[in-house]
Amino acid sequence: MKRDVKAIVKEMTLEEKAGMCSGKDFWHLKSVERLGIPEVMVSDGPHGLRKQADEADHLGLNDSIKAVCFPTACATACSFDRDLLEEMGERLGEECQAENVSVILGPAVNIKRSPLCGRNFEYFSEDPYLASQMAAAQIKGVQSKHVGTSIKHFAANNQEHRRMSCSSEIDERTFREIYLGAFETAIKEAKPDTVMCSYNKINGEFASENYRLLTEILRDDWGFEGYVMSDWGAVNERVKGLKAGLDLEMPGSGGCTDKEIVEAVKNGDLDEAVLNTAVERILNIIFKFTDNRQEAVFNREEDHKLAAKIAAESMVLLKNEGILPIQPEGKKIAFIGKFAEQPRFQGGGSSHINSFKITGALEAAKEIAEVTYAQGYEVKEDKVDEKLLEEAVQTAKEADVAVIFAGLPDAFESEGYDRTHMRMPECQNLLISEIAKVQKHVVVVLHNGSPVEMPWADDVEGILEAYLCGEAVGQAEVGLLFGQANPCGKLAETVPYKLSDNPSYLHFPGDGKTVEYKEGVFVGYRYYDTKEMPVRYPFGYGLSYTTFEYSDMQVSAEEIKDTETLKVSLKIKNTGNMTGKEIVQLYVADKTGAVSRPVKELKNFVKVELQPQEEKTVEMELDKRSFAWYCTELADWYAATGEYEILAAASSRDIRLRKTVKVISSQNLPLSVSRNTTISELLENPGTAVMIKELAESLVAHMGGSQEAEEGNAAAEAITPEMSMKMMENAPLRSMRSFMGMKEAELDALIQKLQDAVV
Q1: Domains parsed from the chain with CATH numbers
Q2: Closest CA to 341 of 478, 485, 487, 479
Q3: How far apart are CA 476 and CA 533, in angstroms?
Q4: Between the CA of residue 10 and those of 4, 273, 656, what are the distances in Å?
Q5: Which of 81, 231, 501, 590 is catalytic?
Q6: Which among 4, 51, 382, 656 is least surrounded, fewest beta carbons within 10 Å?
Q7: 3-state percent breakdown (helix, strand, coil) of the chain, nearest 5
Q8: Residue 199, Cβ neighbours under 10 Å: how many?
Q9: What is the SS3 assignment for 684?
Q10: How confident is the model at residue 94 (pLDDT cuts 50, 70, 90)?
Q11: What is the pLDDT of residues 240-288, one digit of tens each?
Q12: Could you tell me if 68 and 307 are in contact, meaning their C-beta atoms sit under 8 angstroms apart?
């Protein structure tokens, strides 16, 4: 059924059009029955359906329908598995069809700038490439079921503190490479139906009123064709927002802002064509859903099984000194900690799911082993309960293996506020330390949405990072602990030793009015690895119950143009005795020295399953963007001519294979020649290099660089050819007057000649 949306908009009254640009209530868009425009519903996500019926709210305070809570983004990103995320997306899309939900609000791709952000559990990674790949896969899955997604929060929403008013102060290169980077690929490749703008200001202007962000970048540069909606309550000035490209305000304002739009059109402040375009965008997505309604069943039991599968693929084994997998036969096994019985498996706030059922580790273990249990701690407050502590220590002491289920309680991290430190509750740290004194064989299983300090890490034999892994978390944990499944997740973020190691430490969360992103592009591993700083666990790290060997790395060419694609292949062999999956990470290291860059950046990855002793060849591709950085002078992506290292790695700190390739740039950096342009800048430009080379040699001679360093020749020893060359390279053109006696008119003529030669 082909809809003539433009014709429908022509039939609408001004008031009806204005009304389409804001919600009817918290979750519904308005209908226009006389024109066949139906009312549709949107619902919170992004890792489960939070569909509310009556008393609606945005922060999860009131109940929603019983649904399935899949693992949160902090966990699923660790799967490094595009296919898995697409499968989860498909299931979410089916649930939305079954519940008549037109758009699910997610995925959330904001960068994990600081471990303290209260909403990090809902975000994928500190790395924009990984975040964009995970988001794109999830979007494709959901939208394959003719249900829309709303990628969020666009953009630079990296903290909860004063999130509705604070301004994120970011330079253009950092903005493009890191904070927009996570959105760009997902939007271009997966084409989400909607984009949700963030609350915050960006360099002083609200995201909801930012024409450059919502129109020039999102639509003109990236080709986005859907509609932009506000985060709930993010609208500051409605008419200004509409002009900037904010199509839909959510939730509804009770007609208040609709009247503002009507009045603005009537008094000439708003071109009605702008309003018409916004309505067309909204209607296109409404009809895309309603004209493709499908019969679907919300099979909660089957979706629970999928949640368990995803959880097992996402958990990360951080430490294993031979204690895992646990062999239950003839062993006394103790499960310690309240999270064993009542796990923390999701975050608080707008994404909080009213879970259909919850499987904790204590329940799941009944089918595998006999375990004793002690609660160990309370979660309502960080207070040592001596009786619980004593009981837990004694239970652990009497066992052969103690598994401690620990982590962050709900109160420690949630939407709406940031953490103030990276520590776990002291009562839990004490519990782990006390048990380690009486029991050598200890495994700690962590439930948290963001990294925690681990003062006890050296005192235990095993650590399993479960993150917030959804309602089937216990089933997945037990499967991994007892070897029914092989851990294969790898960290999507760096775990530093302490908070002050983090690059944003001195500037997060700002003074409440502004927050300065002074670390620039050096976010996460880009900072830690470039600085060669010790970390607890590096980005991309994760252990397995088997081992993998990397070999025979090949590249399709040793030299490519930046318009060409480089193919990279290598062999991976499972050298152990258990089936496992390895995540092969491909990093690029820029060796050109053209600009300050991180020592390496993730540019592709592949996850491969291997039987014991099986070997496979994996292939990945790198394109121009894999080598490029954002050049503000070009207002474009630029890969400098020169050498780049291609690194095949098991983590950002575990490089297994490397190859060097040369990239030839099809672009030249713009050069405006002036009296202060240096010789080195002129030598870098192909057009001016030939002309300046002879002049440069004369300049070196005038600086004394041609003198031969004879014994006893103090001048020659003081001014070496190397020193003269460096001085020459850094010398501005105006130095020709001082060192070569060039007249002012001659200098001006030279400058003009050089400018004409620039390419």
Answers
A1: 41-249+259-290 (3.20.20.300), 300-530 (3.40.50.1700), 548-664 (2.60.40.10), 679-757 (no CATH)
A2: 478
A3: 33
A4: 10, 11, 62
A5: 231
A6: 4
A7: 35, 20, 45
A8: 22
A9: helix
A10: very high
A11: 999 999 999 999 989 999 999 999 999 999 999 999 999 999 999 999 9
A12: yes
Alpha-carbon torsion angle 292, 298, 302, 308, nearest 10: 90
Radius of gyration of the chain (CA): 29
**What's the CA gap between 558 and 659, in Å, rounded?**
9
Q: What does the DSSP 8-state code read for residue 533?
A: -
Cβ–Cβ < 8 Å for 159, 105: no
Q: CB-based contacts of 460: which residues, under 8 Å, 6+ apart?
A: 319, 404, 432, 436, 442, 443, 444
Report residue 582 as tokens.
């390895």
Do the beta carbons of residue 567 and residue 604 sit within 8 Å? no
Q: Which of 476, 597, 494 is nearest to 536 (CA)?
A: 494
Do residues 204 and 156 lie in contact, with contact meaning Cβ atoms separated by under 8 Å?
no
Instruction: Tell which residue, 110, 107, 115, 76, has the closest CA to residue 524.
Output: 115
Half-sphere exposure (Cβ direction) of 213: Cα atoms closer than 13 Å? 28
**Amino acid present at 184:** E
> Residue 61 corresponds to which amino acid?
L
Nearest partner of 228 among 206, 251, 197, judged by Cα: 197
Confidence of residue 719 (pLDDT cuts 50, 70, 90): low
3-state secondary structure 96-119: HHHCCCCEEECCECCCCCCCCCCC
Strands 514-516 and 167-169 come out as parallel
Give the pLDDT confidence of 369-428 residue by residue, as tens digits.
999 999 999 999 999 999 999 999 999 999 999 999 999 999 899 888 999 999 999 999
Do 349 and 60 form a contact (C-beta atoms < 8 A)?
yes
DSSP output for 436-470: HHH-S-EEEEEE-SS----TTGGG-SEEEE--S--
Q: Has 231 been annotated as catalytic?
A: yes
Task: Kindly report the number of other CB atoms within 10 A of residue 236's CB atom.
Answer: 17
Phi, psi of 680 (to 5 degrees): -65, -40
For the chain, the average pLDDT equals 94
The residue to which tokens 């309240």 are assigned: 338
Between 183-187, 295-299, 580-584, the lowest mean confidence (pLDDT) is in 295-299
Provide the token pair at 592: 């050109």
* pLDDT attached to residue 135: 98
HSE at residue 720, side-chain half, CA atoms within 13 A, is: 5
N-terminal to C-terminal alpha carbon distance within the chain:
53
Indicate the pLDDT class of residue 707, thresholds 50, 70 and 90: very low
